[in-house]
Amino acid sequence: MTEGVQTSPAFTPRVFSGIQPSGGLTLGNYLGALKRFADTQNKGIESIYCMVDLHAITVWQDPAKLAHATRELCAGFIASGIDPEKSILFNQSQVPEHAQLAWIFNCVARMGWMKRMTQWKDKAGKNQENASLGLFAYPALMAADILLYHATHVPVGEDQKQHLELTRDIAIKFNNDFGVEFFPVTEPVIEGAATRVMSLRDGSKKMSKSDPSDMSRINLTDDADAIATKIRKAKTDPEALPSEVDGLEGRPEARNLVNIYAALSDQTVEQVLADVGGKQFSEFKPMLSELAVTKMTPISTEMARLMQHQDEIDAILRRGSERAREIASPILAKTYEIVGMVR
Ligand code: AMP
Ligand code: TRP
């Protein structure tokens, strides 16, 4: 965990994060989320990771594909190094307390807060009238995910920062409204070289599973050839690589490839540039390609193997959900009591 991060002393450090099973995992998910989750787990901090299927259905999901994507995501977590014995790994809908606490938070959060969320504006687009009510309430459910476990730290990519600020606002308002110090004011953990991995075709756009061009991203299911081709064809500029970080200014594609190299090799951007400064992309790309293939193909192989054993995946999710409920259920019960629900 980051040194100097402030946590209310009353709460023991606990990490929570979630990923939507909305089909396909990218290198962005791996470097911005999964790899960092595994690193956190390996530091021995209690960690809870959730496949947020209730969030996924805020936009239409084909039921058969949703079930497949949830299992594939679980396989992705395990293949990335998350150990279901050490961490709690489960899917949101098997722990009904998430939806129950989300309802309370729907009554704490204000319409004005939700309307300011950029993800809502982006996803609802011009046709807000036709977006689901769930899409609008999405951040209150996310706050419930986190606060249901009194989680103190939430590792995410840059794009989730605003949602985490809203989670803090909900915790603060709840505590104030009811005159309690019940929910922690959670710290976002957005750190490392790859909190925002960009498209390989356009350095100004986030690498995303929803980009129409498959060449824009590396999928966790890509084989060695696909990875190598995508890196070879990645957009770059004609200059050599700089030796200092300042030299990446105004060169989004170069910055992105260097960030990816740094994150995959567990180095800082400064360390990478000290090594590769002065090299042309014709030399750097094969280095990156080799590194990416070495790091990523064992993950795709392991995911494919795990997907042959769906019963085991389902058992892991069931067991994880039971363990999650043991923590969640007393916290929900206490919340109901604070709010004045007769039990
Ligand atoms: P999602 O797939 O949108 O549910 O995102 C799951 C996690 O991956 C979140 O923590 C995101 O912030 C992170 N993430 C998704 N895309 C990227 C990206 N291109 N770069 C870094 N992190 C990402
Ligand atoms: N909104 C997150 C995303 O799209 C997923 C998410 C749901 C999440 N609940 C969470 C992330 C709780 C961290 C903590 O990436």
From TrEMBL:
UniProt main location, coarse: cytoplasm
Domain of life: Bacteria
EC number: 6.1.1.2
Enzyme class: ligase
GO cellular component: cytosol
UniProt GO molecular function: ATP binding; tryptophan-tRNA ligase activity
Ranges spanned by the short sequence motif 'KMSKS' region, renumbered to the chain: 206-210
Entry annotated with the keyword Ligase: yes
Positions contributing to L-tryptophan binding: D145
Subcellular location: Cytoplasm
Record keywords, A-Z: Aminoacyl-tRNA synthetase, ATP-binding, Cytoplasm, Ligase, Nucleotide-binding, Protein biosynthesis
Biological role: Catalyzes the attachment of tryptophan to tRNA(Trp).
UniProt record similarity statement: Belongs to the class-I aminoacyl-tRNA synthetase family.
Protein's name in the database: Tryptophan--tRNA ligase
Species annotation: Thalassococcus halodurans
